[in-house]
Every structure is written in structure tokens, then in C-alpha cells.
Design brief:
Strand content of chain A: over 45%
Number of helices of chain A: 0
Order of helices and strands of chain B: EEEEEEEEEEE
Low-confidence stretches of chain B: none
Structural class of chain A: mainly beta
Distance between the termini of chain A: 36 Å
Mean pLDDT of chain A: 94
Structural class of chain B: mainly beta
Mean pLDDT of chain B: 92
Helix content of chain B: under 10%
Radius of gyration of chain B: 13 Å
Oligomer: heterodimer
Shape of chain B: globular
Radius of gyration of chain A: 13 Å
Strand content of chain B: over 45%
Low-confidence stretches of chain A: none
């Protein structure tokens, strides 16, 4: 299932700098998008979401941008902290349905 | 903060045996889900459940799988006759409402199922 893709399997960033994670989707019926963070041996933890009627949503250090014409979303983490080191998944769903379709994840390493 | 709890954390079962994975969703949530992640692959949707019935299921969720909410708090996934390819991490999730009204799904820490 390639409907949601995260093309960068890993990202390394210096503490205090910006982390930018990207996600592309192909299904134009998706209208709700989420980012989850996952530590080893734990389940995905919800971070931030955005609906298709918006192009930006911000929550503290986390901002999600949505470009519907490009079918692309990104997650910005500013400033990055060592505790942000984890795997980040983007996920998408249709308003009328409720299943999440996940990307393959991006492993982020924040170096002190 | 309320959380979804799953038991056991690790289940080892012989091929052909039945297995039941258990979940306690967040108490005021109405929608319940099972996902799985085979090692090295994406998290994939199995089934969603609302108002005591399945609302959506994937093609993975065949006749070997069933879900049940036996009481007011538990939500279970049963695999009737396990196969080697059922080995995966199984995640339970719950949400207050459908995604269309902006309520995210919250996940448990998963049950690692190993079929021998």
C-alpha cells in the first residue's frame, strides 16, 4: 500500500536546529492527516494533526504544513531536542471513514 | 493522562493454536481499532469497531480473525488458527469520535505475537 509515503528513512539533526520531516500521499480522498512519534517497545503517540481545510497547524515546537495541490505534508520541530529522537509516522484518513493509512516512518536522531 | 493498555506484552504460540489479544481502551472512547506491524513493514489497519459491531475491516481481516467487546471495558482480537505470517506487533487504538471531527486515535504499546 503506497498511498502514504515517507521517502526519508532517517534524519540526523543537531540539538537546537530544525527537524523537517516530509510525507506524500496519493489518495485525494484523504482529508485528515496526523503525525505520530514512536519510541522502541512503545505504541505510536499522537503528536499533531491537520484537516484539509487548513494549511498549517501549530502546537508548541511542532508545526504541520499541508500542501493539498502537491499532496504533501511536512512536520517541523523547532528547536529539536535529544528527547525527540524517535521514529515519526505520518498517517492519513478520510473524513467519512476512520481507518488510518500509515507511511513507513522516518527515524530521527537529535545529536546533543 | 488516560491510556490504552494491552496485554500480554509478548505472546508466543504454536502454529495452529488460537490466540486472544486483549485491550482496555480509554474509558470515554467509543471507537476501537486493531492494527498490526510486521517487522520491517508499515503499520497496517485490520479492523474498526463501533456500537458493538465491525464498522470497517481490511482484506487482512479474514475469517480467522474476530473481535469482541465482551464487557464495558475490554476489547479483544482473536486469531482462530495462527499461521507463521501472523507474527507481528499488534496495536489496539481508540478514539472519541470519527476522524472527520478531528479526534485522533490513541494507541496502546502493543502485543508482540510470535508464532512458532
Amino acid at each position: 500500500d503506497q498511498q502514504v509515503k515517507q521517502n526519508s528513512p532517517s534524519l540526523s539533526v543537531q540539538e537546537g536546529r530544525i527537524s523537517i520531516l516530509n510525507c506524500d500521499y496519493t489518495n485525494s480522498m484523504f482529508d485528515y492527516f496526523l503525525w505520530y512519534k514512536k519510541y522502541p517497545a512503545e505504541g505510536p503517540t499522537f503528536l499533531i494533526s491537520i484537516s484539509s481545510i487548513k494549511d498549517k497547524n501549530e502546537d508548541g515546537r511542532f508545526t504541520v504544513f499541508l500542501n493539498k495541490s502537491a499532496k504533501h505534508l511536512s512536520l517541523h520541530i523547532v528547536p529539536s531536542q535529544p528527547g525527540d529522537s524517535a521514529v515519526y509516522f505520518c498517517a492519513a484518513s478520510r473524513a467519512a471513514g476512520n481507518k488510518l493509512t500509515f507511511g513507513g516512518g522516518t527515524r530521527v536522531l537529535v545529536k546533543p | 493522562e488516560p491510556e490504552v493498555t494491552q496485554t500480554p506484552s509478548h505472546q508466543v504460540t504454536q502454529m495452529g493454536q488460537e490466540v486472544i489479544l486483549r485491550c482496555v481502551p480509554i474509558s470515554n472512547h467509543l471507537y476501537f481499532y486493531w492494527y498490526r506491524q510486521i517487522l520491517g513493514q508499515k503499520v497496517e489497519f485490520l479492523v474498526s469497531f463501533y456500537n458493538n459491531e465491525i464498522s470497517e475491516k481490511s482484506e487482512i481481516f479474514d475469517d480467522q480473525f474476530s473481535v469482541e467487546r465482551p464487557d464495558g471495558s475490554n476489547f479483544t482480537l482473536k486469531i482462530r488458527s495462527t499461521k507463521l505470517e501472523d507474527s507481528a506487533m499488534y496495536f489496539c487504538a481508540s478514539s472519541e469520535a470519527l476522524q472527520g471531527v478531528g479526534q485522533p486515535q490513541h494507541f496502546g504499546d502493543g502485543t508482540r505475537l510470535s508464532i512458532l
